Every structure is written in structure tokens, then in C-alpha cells.
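[Solved] Which block belongs to which protein?

Original post:
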Amino acid sequence: MTDHKEGPESFRETGVVGDDRLDPYEIDFLPEFREGRGPKRPFVNEHGVLIGDHDYVSADSPLEQWSTETDPAIMSGDQWVHPFKDIGFHTAENRDYFERGIPPKEGIFLHAVRNTASAAKRPPEAEEPEEGNRR
């Protein structure tokens, strides 16, 4: 295994994939989105889990050892997402952006009738829903 120079220090490429051709889990990133993304090949993260091998079950994964004592935050962060082979890249919005350079439309993730921003980021003039209308 070799240390990868571009991504976080916890990424170690495994060398499992022997070439740089696209596989079914990748999209064809525009050149400006390829540089500095992190490892192209599968890598072992700081928890000993192989990421980007297309096998989403790993004995070392916290998901396979989950209990009421497990802090869900352990599964957050870039060390759990492959920078080239994440299934989320296959959405229409991400393909438009990363393959065609078309930025997402503003406002598409807004709730139709409620201000769902956290209180810390909510403008002071934003009204809270009446007690009976809260979910």
C-alpha cells in the first residue's frame, strides 16, 4: 500500500484497481473536478474499512458492529465517501454539474411552506409555525 498525497492523511490507496478507466460506479468528471479530489483507487480509511471497492459490507465498519453505545457521528466525514465512486454522483443534478459544468438551480431544496433553517442561521424576521402546525 502507498500513502496518497492528495487526500486526507488517513487515506491509503489499496491498489485493488489496476487502471484509471471509468468503472460503472464512476462518472466522467470534467478536468477541473478531477484535481485534488483524493484517491482514485479504493482506499482503507482510518477505521480499517475499504472504501470504493463496490462492496458496501465490511466487518470493520461501525455499521456491522452497531449498538446503542455507537455514536452515529463516527460514520460522518470524508473518510466514508469515495471521491470518485460515490453513488450520489449519479444523480441528474450532480452529473449536470460535474460532467457538464451546469451549476444546480438555486432554491430547489427549500421547503415549500416552512423555513427549515436552523435557529442560528434563521433571519430574525422568519416566523416560527404556530404550535398546532408543528410536526
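(Second protein starts here: sequence line, then its C-alpha cells.)
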Amino acid sequence: MTLIVDDAGSGDLLFGVVVGAYREETKEFKYDIIDVRFYQDIFREKEYLQEASRVVSKLVAKFNLNPEEAIHICQGCIFDVAAEELKKVYGEDHVKRIHVEGETQRLVEIAYLDEIRNLGYEPLAERDEKRGKSFFHMMRWLKDNPKMLRYAKTGWPRLKNYQLFKSFHAKPTFNAVCSECGSECEVPFQPKTDKTVFCKKCWSNHKPARPPHSRKPHNKRKTNKR
């Protein structure tokens, strides 16, 4: 028998990621979710890879695999950690990375669509063929429903180019008191009581001078006189 693992939603703006497992011979299907928070503030830390591994291990365990059963897992990078962990538990020969198609892909996709419909969003019928159009369709829905931004993958760096998501990508500032002039100011770091803090004006007086650029002597090209 073979257990196939796939995901849906990792490239979509809305919701987290659905991870599903399907056993062809018994037609059993189960799925779980990588929460959207792994694609928000902590996205750059790539903790979603560890979470994907945890979700996959939990799903696979529910099937009570027999010793000879194979596990086929999607080639997507989201499963890089998961695949290695599965190999440690079930053996190198029993875990294979594949391009998932067919019934497994269909069931995982349906599970993802059900989840985003539960948010009140109706996906485009042609979303598979027109991924770019689907992205902007989701973004327009979020613009009309700003309270649902908490269900968006706001950690994607490319989103900083869109006004709707700029507040999520703005660098945080902290209130402080300038150590020199005593005025209140904002700084891009958490101030500490034992450290000197300057406002912009005072910082310009203390900023280290840049060393002059050393110029290499210009070597004239020698020409041979005839």
C-alpha cells in the first residue's frame, strides 16, 4: 500500500496551508492545517518548515502504516524537513519525493477551498489556470473586508509593494528620550536604560565621519614609440 502526502494553499494569499494524506488502496483521506501565523510575522524564520514536518508526522501516524507501506510526499520545498524526518522514522527506502497528481491532489485542493469558503471568500473557478488573477481576486476581497487581513499571508516580502499590506512591513519604532537634548523621539530599536540614545538631530553630530575614499593613482597606458 502507498500513502501520498500533498499540500494546497502555500502559494495562495488567503489562509494557511492544508496538508493532506491519502491512502489509495483504502480510499482514506485525512488532512490538517499549517496555521496562517507561520506566514505572517515569523515567516522569515521559516518555522513553517518545522510546522509542516510536525503536521505530516501527526497525519502519517493516524494511518497506522504497516512495515512495508510506502510514503510518497510532494516534491515542494515546504516538505523538505518533513521528508527527512519521515526517513529517520520509516526508513530511506520507504519515503519517496514525487510530483503529486490525481485523487490526492484533488482532495487536498477541495479541503483548502472549503477552508477559504468558511472565511466567506468564494474562489475563482479558473484559479488553477490563472494563479495571478486568483491572487488579485483575493487581494481585492481583502481590501473590501479589511478585518479578514488576519487570515492573509502578510509575511510575504513581495506584499510590501502594495498599500494594503504596508503596515505589516513597516519597521517598528520605539519611544525614547534623547540622552543629549532630552527631547522625546522615536528610534528603530528597543532602547535600554544603560545605553546612550540620540534623536535624529543629535545623532547627526555624533555620527562617525566617513573616511575619504582613497584614490588609486591613474596609470597612464604606455605606448611604444616607433
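Accepted answer:
You had them paired correctly. Confirming on the second one: The chain has six helices and seven strands.
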